[in-house]
Automatic annotation (TrEMBL):
Protein location: Membrane
Naturally occurring in which organism (per UniProt): Streptomyces chisholmiae
Main location: membrane
Stored Pfam families: UbiA
Transmembrane keyword on record: yes
Keyword annotations of the record: Membrane, Transmembrane, Transmembrane helix
Membrane topology designation: Multi-pass membrane protein
PANTHER family for this protein: CHLOROPHYLL SYNTHASE, CHLOROPHYLL SYNTHASE, CHLOROPLASTIC
Name of the featured protein: UbiA family prenyltransferase
């Protein structure tokens, strides 16, 4: 594969944004006390399903992108629509296969996640249910990590709700990233971010690490969202979406710390730095 074609595929699956995915499995596994093998399978499964969703998203939006984002791989002709759809189907199958190698609950959760991803891309994205569907997908992604435990882990439900709430708020902002114009969406996302940070910073296991990660979460998401609320132009709104997406990593680290896996926090925060550097070269939206 040539360098130009490799870059096109990296753009299609939003390569840097994929670094926000493994932390879901880590946070879920910490809450569920899942064994390392099943956590690794959950990471692989969720990465495959994330890439599948990105490829399917651009396949479904190819006509819209030809008008608003002609530089993307499909409208620019660098990747054929059939190849993108085939990649989405193949990656979905791979994600389900990896989950099936774990536990039955992991397979069931991955199946629900895959169904949510396909429903969002093909039907729900441009409806009022779109942000909630995207939030549900992220929540299920965290639960996929918890599903690797030997027993059900109800402790994973609260962090899944927090991840889902943040994601839904940022997704609502993303609806205005082309033309801008909305102050309400970034303001609502700011309020959600503050509420999520407060919930994560409550007393619990490894509270000091959790509070530090919660502060990093706020510092990653809030400034760009505040600028988007102050000046809701397309570029400022896109920057708010990027900040909100990258903020998932310190949020995952905080949730893992609250579940007693504070040692995972430095590793996850390293992913944040890498994602920031790569996002300067390849768009995450």
């Amino acid at each position: 594969m040539t360098g130009g074609r490799a870059r096109a595929w990296l753009e299609l699956v939003r390569g840097p944004a994929a670094l926000t995915v493994p932390g879901d499995a880590v946070a879920g596994a910490a809450a569920g006390r899942a064994p390392a093998r099943n956590t690794a399978l959950a990471m692989g499964s969720s990465l495959c399903l994330y890439w599948a969703g990105m490829a399917l998203n651009d396949w479904a939006d190819r006509a819209e992108d030809a008008r608003d984002r002609p530089h993307r791989p499909l409208p620019s002709g660098r990747i054929a629509p059939a190849a993108a759809f085939g990649a989405a189907a193949g990656l979905t199958a791979a994600g389900l296969a990896l989950a099936a190698a774990g536990t039955r609950r992991q397979l069931a959760t991955a199946g629900a996640l895959a169904a949510t991803v396909w429903a969002y891309d093909l039907k729900l994205k441009h409806t009022a249910a779109g942000p909630a569907a995207m939030g549900a997908a992220r929540g299920l992604d965290l639960l996929l990590g918890a599903a690797g435990a030997d027993r059900p882990a109800p402790a994973a439900l609260p962090p899944a709700v927090l991840i889902a709430a943040h994601t839904a708020a940022v997704t609502h902002v993303s609806r205005h990233e082309v033309a801008g114009g909305s102050r309400a969406a970034p303001l609502a996302a700011l309020a959600t971010t503050a509420g999520v940070a407060a919930a994560v910073a409550r007393p619990g296991p490894d509270a000091a690490t959790a509070r530090g990660c919660a502060a990093s979460y706020l510092l990653t998401a809030a400034p760009a969202l505040a600028r988007a609320a102050h000046r809701p132009t397309g570029p400022h709104t896109r920057a708010g979406v990027v900040g909100g997406l990258q903020a998932l990593v310190p949020l995952q680290a905080a949730l893992a710390a609250r579940a007693g896996a504070g040692a995972a926090a430095p590793v996850l925060l390293t992913l944040l730095g890498t994602a920031r550097r790569l996002s300067r070269k390849v768009s995450v939206t």
